């Protein structure tokens, strides 16, 4: 074997001064020879029994075979531990195992870490795979053409995961049909010499539409009408597990007002919550986009946060087009009174003409309401849901309790109550 002048080698004489060679200066022939050591389970036994050093066919020691790490290592040093039968390389701060028995360790290959998905994982949007490339610890080869793959699954644990056909680039446009499923980005790191690491996946991210207030959109199909609703209240972090599930209470909106922050509530129990923005602005105001997140109180009739009053609910929905203040995600709207009437008629056959039937059919909750003065009332006792339909100076809403379910047409517009969106 040809050992050039750059290679430090040991004297074949036992107990001579030992020098450990530096991997980065190996020529290709020697490096190919060293790779044979990755099949060294048998060799270790032979070396330990007969030799102090691993040698070339001419008897030249290439690097040390020792029972313990050298006391004064330098970056790039390699030694074979005859006790552990593991090949180690010094990375400048610590000894790193690069082969054991006949297996190359992951540290001898490029790797990918910190894998995630950048962008909004919403159907119709483009997302980008993000990761950190780490070279092998031996020669630190730069990244070459790494391999990408996007995956789809039915839940956050990756259940029923499948590779998405044709999705092998770093970016991916989420199809509309993916709403309610989960995505993961996979990367197989490859270095400039073709060395390939192990594929790693990101966490599973929900591919869902998102409302303007950040509520994730999962669909729920009414068993009676066949209409598609969101499965949770706007502002809720999940679909309800019961009528008093406060993590599903969500936000309390003033009628026909946008999701500008006034609606957000920090719920701490089924009967207690506090506004995220505690200040209350004395109203009414004349601008339908008030430009702040404060609740707007109304102390006198007609108890509307907006003056002059609007003659219809078109700020939210006019029957065919979403308005400027529509808080629902694209393709959804605040229901009309007629749409609530259709569902109300089915509550009795789904557990009762009350909150129980409403929960059974649409996962509705008893969140309570925020009075025209900004104070929260009746959480866990009443469930109120806006419609976009007016009734004189008031507005209609669904009114739920443990004993009743009805449409109330006398809702004062400055009151803060729930919104549940229905698909157009």
Write the layout of secondary structure elements.
Elements: H1 28-35, H2 41-50, E1 53-55, E2 61-66, E3 78-81, E4 86-90, E5 95-100, E6 103-104, E7 111-118, E8 126-134, E9 147-153, E10 162-163, E11 171-173, E12 181-188, E13 200-201, E14 205-207, E15 209-210, E16 216-217, E17 219-221, E18 228-230, E19 253-254, E20 265-269, E21 272-275, E22 280-282, E23 295-297, E24 332-333, H3 337-347, H4 355-362, E25 369-370, E26 376-377, E27 383-391, E28 394-400, E29 405-411, E30 416-417, E31 422-423
Parallel strand pairs: 2-3, 22-23
Antiparallel strand pairs: 1-2, 3-4, 4-5, 5-6, 7-8, 8-11, 9-10, 9-12, 12-13, 12-14, 15-16, 17-18, 19-30, 20-21, 24-31, 25-26, 27-28, 28-29
Helix pairs in contact: 3-4
Structure notes:
With 424 residues, this protein is mostly beta strands. 9% of the residues lie in helices and 30% in strands. It is built from four helices and 31 strands. The strands form eleven sheets. The protein has a six-stranded mixed β-sheet with strand order 1-2-3-4-5-6, covered by helices on one side. Strand 1 and strand 2 form a beta hairpin. Helix 3 packs across helix 4 (355-362). The chain starts with 27 loop residues before the first helix and ends with a strand. Mean pLDDT is 84; it is low at 1-53.
Give the tally of structural domains: 3
Multimer state: single chain
Fraction in helix: under 10%
Radius of gyration: 34 Å
Say how many strands there are: 31
Q: What topology, given as strand order, has the largest sheet?
A: 1-2-3-4-5-6
Q: Specify the structural class.
A: mainly beta
In angstroms, what separates the terminal alpha carbons?
Answer: 77 Å
Question: How big a fraction of the residues is strand?
Answer: 25-35%
**Number of helices, counting only DSSP H or I runs of 4 residues or more:** 4
Arithmetic mean of pLDDT: 84
Choose one word for the global shape.
elongated
């Amino acid at each position: 074997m040809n050992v050039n002048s750059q290679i430090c080698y040991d004297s074949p004489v036992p107990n001579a001064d030992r020098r450990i060679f530096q991997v980065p200066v190996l020529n290709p022939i020697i490096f190919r020879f060293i790779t044979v050591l990755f099949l060294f389970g048998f060799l270790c036994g032979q070396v330990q029994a007969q030799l102090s050093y691993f040698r070339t066919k001419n008897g030249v020691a290439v690097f040390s075979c020792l029972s313990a790490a050298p006391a004064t290592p330098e970056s790039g040093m390699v030694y074979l531990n005859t006790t552990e039968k593991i090949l180690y390389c010094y990375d400048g701060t610590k000894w790193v195992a690069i082969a054991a028995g006949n297996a190359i360790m992951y540290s001898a290959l490029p790797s990918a870490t910190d894998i995630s998905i950048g962008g909004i994982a919403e159907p119709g949007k483009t997302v980008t795979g993000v990761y950190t490339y780490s070279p092998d610890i031996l020669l630190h080869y730069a990244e070459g053409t790494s391999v990408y793959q996007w995956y789809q699954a039915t839940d956050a644990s990756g259940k029923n995961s499948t590779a998405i056909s044709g999705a092998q680039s770093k970016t991916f446009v989420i199809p509309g049909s993916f709403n309610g499923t989960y995505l993961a980005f996979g990367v197989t790191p490859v270095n400039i010499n073709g060395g390939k690491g192990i594929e790693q996946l990101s966490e599973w991210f929900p591919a869902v539409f998102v409302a303007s207030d950040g509520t994730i959109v999962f669909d729920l199909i009414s068993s009676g009408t066949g209409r598609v609703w969101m499965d949770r209240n706007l502002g809720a972090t999940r679909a309800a597990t019961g009528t008093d599930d406060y993590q599903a209470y969500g936000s309390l909106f003033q009628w026909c007002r946008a999701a500008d922050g006034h609606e957000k509530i920090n719920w701490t129990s089924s009967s207690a919550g506090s506004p995220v923005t505690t200040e209350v602005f004395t109203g009414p105001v004349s601008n339908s986009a008030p430009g702040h997140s404060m609740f707007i109180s109304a102390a006198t009739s007609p108890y509307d946060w907006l003056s002059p009053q609007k003659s219809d609910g078109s700020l939210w929905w006019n029957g065919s087009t979403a308005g400027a203040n529509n808080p629902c995600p694209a393709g959804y709207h605040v229901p009309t009174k007629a749409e609530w009437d259709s569902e109300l008629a089915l509550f009795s056959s789904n557990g009762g003409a009350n909150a129980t039937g409403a929960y059974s059919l649409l996962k509705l909750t008893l969140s309570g309401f925020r009075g025209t003065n900004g104070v929260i009332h009746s959480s866990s006792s009443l469930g109120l849901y806006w419609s976009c339909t007016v009734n004189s100076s008031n507005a209609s809403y669904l009114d739920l309790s443990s004993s009743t379910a009805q449409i109330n047409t006398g809702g004062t517009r400055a009151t803060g109550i729930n919104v549940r969106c229905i698909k157009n």
